[in-house]
TrEMBL record:
Positions of the Gfo/Idh/MocA-like oxidoreductase N-terminal domain: 371-488
Domain GFO/IDH/MocA-like oxidoreductase as annotated: residue spans: 514-611
Gene3D superfamilies: Dihydrodipicolinate Reductase, domain 2, Glycogen Phosphorylase B, NAD(P)-binding Rossmann-like Domain
Pfam family, one: GFO_IDH_MocA_C3
Name listed for the protein in its UniProt record: Glycosyltransferase
UniProt domain Glycosyltransferase subfamily 4-like N-terminal: residue ranges: 17-160
Length: 690
């Protein structure tokens, strides 16, 4: 069986337009042999483009080196390919990847332009974490070679997939765009100093003198967008220059144009120029490094001195002067693109570098990672995300949520795959265990999907809306002998451990629980047929804690009241509830709940024994034995402990899980009995719901 390597394509660039397109081309060409993650900053715009192609993504913050280091250490990639738009980018990612044992490849997409001594020193130091340096053109390679970066440097020319054919005939495109019948120039580039939009504006008057009906189309966005817009108006060019914004119909624009113009001050190897060559659109470019090696002047395109508007205008006029020559040059450029700048060749050459770097290199291993999938990516899932990402032996690899955008956002945090369908996730991604973090009404299908695949699962409370579903799943779990845990995290409070010690020889005889709070914002919570109400969805924590401390419940009596609330349209759950419980131990308890408040007033459990009074909240413990009311705070994070116990059990270590699924079902049985008693007005013996 061939082992698929883990390949991460990473850029720290804030606006990776061409860099991002290059990375996506590599990813799509290599995904058959590698498990690929695209990593970039959220603001870059690259992550949605990658997700749209079915690629796994990870949102990174280059300024948070500690987080980068944790991510690489946890995911242990085989190869990290860093793509740098300019010399000061990519060093944090390279160092974190190197420290995690990955082979690090770095592609320089632009010539060596650093002049600041500190930046040059940082670049040189950063390369100490790089195993192989790639340049996208001969010009880029030459500039970096002159900086004496050693023999790790190799040139792999940029390559492109030819753009799709225009969807409309040329004449239709021109009519649709309301273009004059004169020549059409297209410049598709980010509005930045590098691209030198000002030069083409300076050249336009001379071009218009020869071709009065010429139109210049400017496609793209960038920091100089409004500066260029003002200059167009100030120069009286509004009738001849059109700003199109960011476009996704570049093939159609190329089909409507006569020339692509590229007046850049510098380039690595322009992808849009290569796409124009492939599409049969002739190119006029500055002779800046990167362009000069791409075009053979007069044969496959035209070159003009960089920074010289008059020369650029003259070159454009010359190119437009002979239509037959335009067609010949376009055909030659297309041949050159297929021969030298083909995407398949670029992909093969890059894959060869990966193979060279990993041949004989030990595969990063160490402690085996436990691969976790999440079903549900709401608030409680994020509580577990924050814990699990601290564990060096855990990787969150897949997230499913009916809200695709929410799944995408959560998956980008970890470099996981996002899904909207549970079965699709489990059929696609190998996981060792599942976290099920869905609203009460959504339970059942996720648990059965886990059981069908023999997967341990952690499920958030309550475990279902009805007892029949919970009992059926409990029976299936027992038959499959699965490791399970339920999120009754109050059992993991260190203060609860202390109370259990106190009660061991002086058991509680009376308990009072309070959940006096506001109404949660999710609208599903407002409806009893979706949440079960406050006793089932919130106060269940205290009911479970009482069971944990005092044993089984034998008899339940409940009362409930409802107040209509204008601010919560459609809310039909009880807004005030009380319950009385009797325990097999002889203890009795009462619980009071309300969601009428606009704040958290009191949430906790009070216990009373022989000359003993105890008050527990999730933050404090008070023990009164007649010598005052000393209070101490809780220590540690109970969710951390419950997650750690679940992961350890999944890994085959000692099973210290405090609330497996079957035990949680008994708590759920009590909570449902309270609601049933409130509806019928009769006390309920627990056997009646079995």
């Amino acid at each position: 069986m061939t082992i698929r390597s883990r390949l991460f394509l990473v850029t720290e660039s804030p606006a990776p337009s061409g860099v991002g397109a290059h990375m996506l081309t590599l990813a799509e060409g290599l995904r058959g042999d590698h498990d690929i993650v695209i990593a970039a900053t959220p603001a870059s715009g690259l992550l949605p483009r990658a997700r749209a192609r079915g690629l796994t993504v990870k949102a990174i913050d280059p300024g948070d080196v500690a987080d980068l280091s944790r991510w690489f250490a946890r995911t242990r990639p085989d190869i990290v390919h860093v793509h740098a738009g300019i010399g000061w980018e990519g060093h944090a990612s390279a160092q974190a990847a190197h420290d995690a044992g990955a082979r690090v490849v770095r592609t320089e997409h632009l010539p060596y332009l650093l002049t600041d001594a500190d930046q040059r020193a940082a670049h040189r130091a950063g390369l100490s974490h790089v195993d192989r340096l790639i340049a996208v053109s001969g010009a880029v390679a030459d500039s970096h070679a002159r900086a004496e970066f050693g023999n790790r440097l190799v040139t792999i020319l940029n390559g492109v997939v030819p753009p799709t054919a225009p969807t409309k005939p040329r004449a239709t495109l021109r009519r649709y765009g309301a273009l004059d019948d004169g020549p059409v120039l297209l410049m598709a580039a980010r509005f930045a100093e590098q691209k030198d939009h000002r030069l083409i504006l300076d050249a336009m008057p001379a071009i218009r003198a020869v071709h009065p009906r010429v139109t210049l189309l400017l496609a793209g966005e960038g920091p100089l967008h409004w500066t260029i817009a003002r200059q167009i108006a100030a120069r009286g060019l509004a009738g001849s220059v059109r700003m199109l914004g960011q476009r996704d119909d570049l093939p159609d624009l190329m089909g409507a144009a006569d020339l692509l113009v590229l007046p850049s001050r510098f380039e690595g190897l322009s992808l849009v120029a290569l796409e124009a060559m492939a599409a049969g659109l002739p190119v006029v470019a500055s002779d800046a490094p990167g362009n000069a090696g791409m075009l053979d002047h007069g044969r496959s395109g035209w070159l003009a001195p960089a920074g010289d508007a008059a020369a650029f205008a003259a070159t454009v006029i010359d190119a437009l002067s002979d239509r037959d020559r335009l067609r010949t040059v376009a055909a030659t450029a297309s041949d050159d693109q297929r021969t030298h700048y083909d995407a398949d060749r670029m992909i093969r050459d890059t894959a060869a570098i990966y193979a060279q770097e990993t041949s004989g290199a030990p595969r990063p291993d160490g402690t085996r990672m436990t691969r976790i999938g999440f079903i549900g990516a709401g608030g409680i899932a994020h509580r577990h995300f924050g814990v699990l990402e601290q564990f060096e032996d855990v990787a969150i690899v897949a997230i499913a949520d009916v809200d695709g955008a929410r799944a995408d956002e959560a998956a980008a945090r970890f470099g996981a795959q996002a899904f909207t369908d549970i079965d699709a996730m489990l059929d696609t991604v190998e996981v060792d265990a599942l976290y099920i973090c869905v609203p009460p009404f959504a339970h059942g299908a996720p648990e059965r999907a886990a059981i069908a695949r023999g997967l341990p699962f952690f499920v958030e409370k309550p475990v279902a809306l009805d007892i029949a579903t919970a009992d059926a799943i409990a029976a299936e779990v027992a038959a499959a002998d699965l490791v399970t845990a339920v999120g009754y995290h109050w059992r993991y409070l260190d203060t609860v451990d202390e109370v259990r010690g106190l009660l061991a020889h002086n058991p509680a005889r009376l308990m009072s629980g309070y959940w006096l709070d506001s109404t949660p914002p999710p609208q599903w919570w407002w409806h009893e047929d979706q949440s079960g109400g406050q006793m089932v969805e919130q106060t269940t924590h205290l009911i479970d804690l009482a069971r944990y401390l005092a044993g089984d419940v034998t008899r339940v009596f409940g009362l409930a009241g409802h107040t209509d609330r204008a601010d919560f349209h459609g809310l039909d759950v009880p807004t005030a509830s009380t319950a009385s419980l009797q325990f097999a131990s002889g203890a009795i308890a009462n619980f009071a709940s309300t969601c009428l408040l606009g704040w958290n007033h009191r949430v906790g459990l009070h216990l009373f024994g022989d000359r003993l009074a105890v008050e527990i909240t999730d933050r404090e413990l008070m023990v009164d034995v007649g010598h005052g009311r000393p209070v101490r705070g809780t220590q540690g994070d109970p969710v951390w402990h419950e997650d750690r116990d679940f992961i350890d059990a999944v890994q085959g270590k000692e099973n210290r899980i405090r609330c497996p699924y079957a035990d949680a079902v008994e708590t759920h049985r009590v909570a449902l009995a309270i609601g049933e008693s409130a509806r019928t007005g009769a006390a309920i013996m627990l056997e009646e719901l079995i």
